[in-house]
Amino acid sequence: MHQKSLIGILGGMGPTATVDFLSKVISATKADVDQEHIPLIVHDVPQIPDRSSAIENGRDDPFLPMLAGIRLLDAAGVEFIAIPCNTAHYWHGRLQRGCRAKILHIADAVAHYVTQMAERPRTIAVMATRGTISGGIYSQRLLEGAEQVLVPDEGTQLLIDRAITGVKANQISAARKAATEAAGLLADAGADCLLLACTELPVALSDFDHGPLIMDATEALARACVRASVGEARMETVG
Amino acid sequence: MHQKSLIGILGGMGPTATVDFLSKVISATKADVDQEHIPLIVHDVPQIPDRSSAIENGRDDPFLPMLAGIRLLDAAGVEFIAIPCNTAHYWHGRLQRGCRAKILHIADAVAHYVTQMAERPRTIAVMATRGTISGGIYSQRLLEGAEQVLVPDEGTQLLIDRAITGVKANQISAARKAATEAAGLLADAGADCLLLACTELPVALSDFDHGPLIMDATEALARACVRASVGEARMETVG
Predict the structure, then answer these.
(1) Which of residues 152-181 of A touch B (CB under 8 A)?
(2) Integer Cα distance of B178 and B164 in angstroms
(3) What ipTM score was computed for the predicted complex, to two decimals?
(4) pLDDT tens digits along A183-193
(5) What topology is assigned to A118-216 in CATH?
């Protein structure tokens, strides 16, 4: 049997986003039977304090609970770790210093995705938590791939906030309404590509298929996991 | 914050069934924010040899890889373990002897579900792998709740086999067709309730809503997890 690297997932941020991420890992894998899928250990403990408000208010309380999860995965023998929560990547460097396994970076996964696009987007709008935006998790890496990065104005950001908290509370239809309205405003502001840079947003925009191109950071990270575990040849092609 | 027990999941059998199970755990939990969801460690390693063919052919090779997963969860400090694979419960007793955590039994979860039904079913048809049926994982416990248990004939079982392998290969529409045809044959044979006793089957029958009542063993096990972690009061009501 083809050798597969064991991947650790620091999940639970939030639980629905973790489920969406796991199903994207399955879709990205070429497999006919259970045994061909990639092996994962998932730390799905949602008691980690809110990451976005911590960044906004200068608190550090998510760090130690995340490090505890990372160390549990490391002790289980994983070779790579993925964190399906964009905002949590604010702590990526410090978490990496606390473990032996390599922690994939979601913005690197997105940057890889952009370099593989037939036609590069001109203006990418970042749909994310306030913490992801003020923490600068994407800005520099995205500017290398697109001409312009668009940050939502306050009214649009309020809609994005509502979509994210809606998914976390399992109120999917309210979340869908807010996310769709925000996407429309960003298209009107000139974005030809929307980066879903919060793992709750693909859940809220799963039916969105008009206007700007959707780039899903969750899917980019899922594909990076499969690539790390089994290599490019055992991946499903995009589409 | 309300205290929650850490739950271990021995998943990966198969990966899609694990994702379906995790989303049913989320749906069964009353929660408005991430932190109110129940904490899980998921051993999602699909390299465990096929359980059904092992039972059919008198092999024991799934046992040690499952025990390794159970021990990893035990070492991580989980209080309860759930196994979202009906067939794997053939080894339930031996796995339980290998760990400190209590392993919930999926047939107990289903039996609890039946006792809470307003009107008990008369004839329950068991839709499962051949291993689950020949291993007798359900028969005794179900006979305590229903007048009659119906085991599919060979033609119907072939359709059920096809539905299960279809989900494992991520060929959902072919799986849906086979499962729907099998469900129709069991209704014709007099079943007023179909027990989906293989965790792949709810994925294939998610849109089925006519004829006999559907009883989903995955959902019963998900509810048992939430009950074990936070108690009845923090559960969503059925519906």
Answers:
(1) 165, 168-170
(2) 9
(3) 0.91
(4) 999 999 999 99
(5) Rossmann fold (3.40.50)
